[in-house]
Amino acid sequence: KAGVTQTPRYLIKTRGQQVTLSCSPISGHRSVSWYQQTPGQGLQFLFEYFSETQRNKGNFPGRFSGRQFSNSRSEMNVSTLELGDSALYLCASSPLGSSVDGYTFGSGTRLTVV
Amino acid sequence: QKEVEQDPGPLSVPEGAIVSLNCTYSNSAFQYFMWYRQYSRKGPELLMYTYSSGNKEDGRFTAQVDKSSKYISLFIRDSQPSDSATYLCAENAGGTSYGKLTFGQGTILTVHP
Question: Does B98 contact A106 at a Cβ distance shorter than 8 Å?
Answer without folding.
Answer: no
